[in-house]
Amino acid sequence: MTEFDGLPTLRSPVAIAAFEGWNDAADASTSAIEHLEQLWDAREVTTIDPEEFYDFQVNRPQITLVDGDTRRIEWPGTTILSASPQGAKHDVVLIRGTEPSMRWRTFCESVLEVCHSLGVKRIVLLGALLADVPYNRPLPISGSVSRSADNESEDQLSITPTRYEGPTGIVGVLHDAARRAELDAMSFWVHVPHYANNPPCPKATLALLHRIEEVLDLPVPVADLAEESAAWEERVKTAASQDAELAEYLRELEERAGDAGTQPPTGEEIASAFEKYLRRRGGPTH
Fold it and tell me: What is the pTM of this model?
């Protein structure tokens, strides 16, 4: 990790993190961080040296042109920034990077070392996953909260507690590392419609930003995201109108979502509906 002398003094900072890759369907979570960077005029504090954590044949460096002339190499990695939102009770530390290829535990230690040096006591991790959900309803948010006496519960944050068991990404690993380091940790995962997963997905990004508003108790202006979200819905609607099988599948999803007050479908029910869709499309079901 690079040296991080001369760190700023922050007011009870809250960290918010997202990572490109497996954890970032339709780029929804990293787009949320980028929105906050621009909104709050965030400034870089330090970076995590990528040399130890990335396979550069998998995550290749990029060549960019500066002033249309000078060539510059940009390496994959993790950038840590700070911001002081107007009217906020807390300063904010924004963590944006690419999911590392290796040495995840050491990587988490490096990130948490910076957080500790900045005085962070709470970290919010953002993720996005592909799911069988209707595009024209509020996109579900699932997640988890490491509880302490003063922490919000899942119910208070309007998230569905996750009961997932299986492979995880750096978001899950960093959440666990933060909990073990006795930081208040919470994770928000927005469910992105799998049939409309090409980035960007402004509706999913918007859903995550609303959760950030709740955590920080601070309005987060969304600029053009609301209009972009409506336009995204219209594009999906148009695509469905031109594909009878997709339209039927979406109707099934909407029926299963049910009217207000009905129970959401179980994972088995959604999986069954998805298998029917795949059979109609002629694709594999397992």
Answer: 0.84
